[in-house]
TrEMBL record:
One Pfam short name: Glyco_hydro_39
Highest taxon in the source lineage: Bacteria
Secretion signal, residue range per the UniProt entry: 1-22
Any GO BP annotation: carbohydrate metabolic process
Every Glycosyl hydrolases family 39 N-terminal catalytic domain range: 28-522
Keyword set includes Signal: yes
Active site: E203
Protein name per the record: Beta-xylosidase
Gene Ontology molecular function terms on file: hydrolase activity, hydrolyzing O-glycosyl compounds
UniProt similarity note: Belongs to the glycosyl hydrolase 39 family.
Keyword Signal: yes
Amino acid sequence: MKKSKYVFLLVLVQVLFQTGFAQKKATIEVNFDKNIAPMKPIWAWFGYDEPNYTYMKDGQKLLTEISKLSPVPVYVRAHNLLTSGDGTPALKWGSTNAYTEDANGNPIYNWKIIDQIFDTYIKRGMKPLAQIGFMPEALSTHPIPYQHKWKPGVRYDEILTGWAYPPKDYKKWGNLVYEWVKHSVERYGKAEVESWYWEVWNEPDGAYWKGTQQDFFKLYDYAADGVKRALPSAKIGGANVTGGGSKYLDAFISHCLVDTNYATGKIGSPLDAVLFHAKGSPRVVNGTVVMSIKTQLKNFESNYRIINKYPQLKNIPVIIGESDPEGCAACGMSTNPENAYRNGTMYSSYTAASFARLYELTDKYSINLIGAVTWSFEFENQPWFAGFRDLATNGVDKPVLNVFRMFGLMKGNRVEAKSDRMYNLKSILDSSIRKTDTDVGVLATKDEKYAAIMIWNYHDEDKNISKDLISVKLNGLNTKTVTLTKYQIDNENSNSYEAWKKMGSPQNPDAKQIAQLEKAGQLKMVGKPSKFKTAENLQFELNRQGVILLKLDW
């Protein structure tokens, strides 16, 4: 009997510890009178493989929501804008049939589907980060087979079909780009197209290009020449290499600066922006998903170092063409269990923690970063919460989208903010966020009579077993009283996934259930706005993998 009592007490202590009995604390100090830099909305960039989802039901709905959450125009990047086909979408596939040829090999241009895609953006005040790719079937040096039949669980290299090869005629390729840009100016106006960015291909150093490095440089030169012939003031860049592709990026930049241009015969090629990718690498350890924020940050750093090698590139716009916790958006958790983090709040807290460190790293290397594309959109007509890397499922917003709604509320300048539980940048670059303590981090901004504080409780291990006490001290506001509004993402708030599980995880929810899920998917205000004396410390609890935004008005 005594032994059973001892076992019971031991289990009870463990449970109490996990549920907050031995609660840890975090002390945060925000100095609103110490500006760091303007709060650039680098997060307001999104992308996806399947361009035909753009104008479908759930695609249009999500684009509307994304456009509304941002105080600035959102940029959108999509693959397959020049791929041949009838516009029927599939995973990691899309097509527009922009280019075909007649029996004599003369070009036939058809902008109908591309216009449908770009019209959807422009109507919502969004702008294309227009990707020039992939290779039309009529131009490919190896056109057969052309459309791949890839599905999750199949080897990634099976997507490499006719669309991934160099053109059989580079002049025709350059003229295709010229005609596309010319058409865009005619349709949308010179001033509008001048505000876009154009870029050539995707990950030429990896799984998306079946030519040599020099083949890609030639592809870029002819495309850039086509862009500039149609609109000399248009902005074009590259090379959108993989996260580990810094050596390839180095060679590409050198080509653009000092090599002979394949299209013009002159020295150099237009380079108005530098683009690269950065990805993390989660894995499953003893049944638990363990992220690697370190891997993604090291991708940022290695490519920043390459850019800083070239004094000619000082202040050049930099765009992270894909910036994500891992690599394959269309790989659900049934085939890739390491992706099980995507439905719940871990994707939210990871996003908050990683963007904060991206701002810090960008300051350190003095990079003119203008955008970091979150490669996450939606997958039309797929099972509910299938674990794709998406912002919404069947028209219902997932918790991660609410982090971007929080970012949309952060204006003005970034200001100094400290937490005694926030991992420093060097520690993360060395060993990620793997120690016993979670990363209770903070990012804060101040505008005229307005401020915002984002706080997260993140750890690389996908566990949600604790709740910490947070204390926030407000300094330098020059006002005795503010109106405080709280928004929160955790298991109870701003979380359609938990709401869906409580319903019994229905794969065919009825209209009433869908309405409840849509409501649960919105950013939730916790309590009501209230008056708060700035001389006092703010105190609240925050779950592990939770995120809170404190909005201050006066």
